[in-house]
């Protein structure tokens, strides 16, 4: 992680793209995997071009052992040199991690949230971001969940994604801005004082 020097000017407030758990093992079981990866890749390109941070949360547990192929972030979304990768062991990407500190050091005021899985790590992290004072953009076509093996108690993946998008369209947190945007409508803009959020085009 890059650290600010004592005499450095504080970073201008602005958005960051957060990519949650887009790892080989998880993407292999994901609903609309190729389309979701493509949507996030496009967001990465635009965020980098605008100078907005791209930050990754990477799950590690008994099934995702660090250093294994399944644990690695998919090649299409690989972090660029110098980008922050935050290891985590829980659905909440802030819990016992350096995520909040990394975002604060970069002047982040709004999180553009993407990744896997919709109703677990994406949901847990987005809610925690709001509780910690961040504005949130949930990218409607930039999060996904696992393909279900058949009829059962879980909602179908397309229903789960749609359900969470609709909840966030109607979610209200005092003092926060919560939006749901398709990837094509997220514009990171230029990071400058007084303009601290991703904007709809």
Automatic annotation (TrEMBL):
Pfam families, per database record: Isochorismatase
MF annotations from Gene Ontology: hydrolase activity
Gene3D superfamilies linked to this entry: Isochorismatase-like
CDD domains: nicotinamidase_related
Organism superkingdom: Bacteria
Domain Isochorismatase-like residues, every copy: 16-146
The protein, known as: Amidase
């Amino acid at each position: 992680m890059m650290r600010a020097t004592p005499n450095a000017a504080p970073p201008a407030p602005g958005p960051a793209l957060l990519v949650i758990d887009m790892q080989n093992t998880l993407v292999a079981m994901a609903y609309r995997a190729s389309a979701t990866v493509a949507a996030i890749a496009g967001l990465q390109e635009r965020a980098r071009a605008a100078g907005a941070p791209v930050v990754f949360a990477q799950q590690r547990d008994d099934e995702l052992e660090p250093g294994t192929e399944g644990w690695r972030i998919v090649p299409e979304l690989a972090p660029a040199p110098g980008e922050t990768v935050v290891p985590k062991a829980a659905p909440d990407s802030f819990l016992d991690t350096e995520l909040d500190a990394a975002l604060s050091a970069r002047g982040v005021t709004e999180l553009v949230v993407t990744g896997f899985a919709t109703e677990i790590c994406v949901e847990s992290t987005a809610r925690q971001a709001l509780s910690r004072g961040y504005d949130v953009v949930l990218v409607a076509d930039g999060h996904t969940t696992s393909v279900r093996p058949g009829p059962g108690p879980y909602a179908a993946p397309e229903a789960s994604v749609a359900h969470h998008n609709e909840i966030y369209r109607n979610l209200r947190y005092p003092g926060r801005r919560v939006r749901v945007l398709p990837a094509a409508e997220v514009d990171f803009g230029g990071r400058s004082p007084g303009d601290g959020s991703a904007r709809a085009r």
